[in-house]
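Listing S7. Sequence submitted for prediction.
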Amino acid sequence: QEQNKQERKVRSREKKEADELRMFELKQQKKREKHRGH
């Protein structure tokens, strides 16, 4: 039971980091597109 809790914590942290990375990538992409003069 204890290991389950630990695993869930690790997995949720990984998911959070992945989400933040994706948001960051999206922001960078938008910034680049703006520079192309659209």
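Caption to Listing S7: primary sequence and predicted structure tokens for the chain studied. The first helix runs from residue 2 to 35. Residues 2 and 8 are 10 Å apart (CA to CA).
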